[in-house]
Amino acid sequence: MVMTSTCFRKIAIAIGISILAGCSQSLGIQPIKGTWKPVSKAYLAFGNLTISDDAIAWSSGQKASFRIVGQDKYDIVVELTEINLPKLNNTAYKYLKFTPKDNILDLEKEDLRVTFYEASQALDDKNAPEAIYTRH
User: Fold this and answer.
1) How far is the C-alpha of 104 from the C-alpha of 106, rounded, in Å?
2) Is the distance from CB of 60 to CB of 37 less than 8 angstroms?
3) What pTM does this model have?
4) What pLDDT digit, counting tens, does each position of 40-86 carry?
5) β 130-135/112-117 pair status
């Protein structure tokens, strides 16, 4: 039996997924701290996004403190605790979920997906607006 390169890639992917599945460490705030530039055109008006230990600020002037309400190895969900919530199409968003775009944990090389939610009940909404940011 001859193994093709496609077969080898499938095996490597399966092994990689198995290794990652065994990793239960949370993403945490440290890898996403810093300044991010929007890639998604709809979010260019917000400007760059800066994430610190307990606050988020866009260069357009919107800013908010946050508290972490959920996290796992790929996601971190924060609740914004300020009145000046980010608005898109006149909708205020109180929750943000940060996820590496392709679920690769090296955020020095990976883009960041930011998903916006109006309420905690909407955190499973697959149609929630999302933006892609890249390291600035």
Assistant:
1) 6
2) no
3) 0.73
4) 888 898 899 999 998 999 998 888 899 999 988 778 899 998 766 66
5) antiparallel
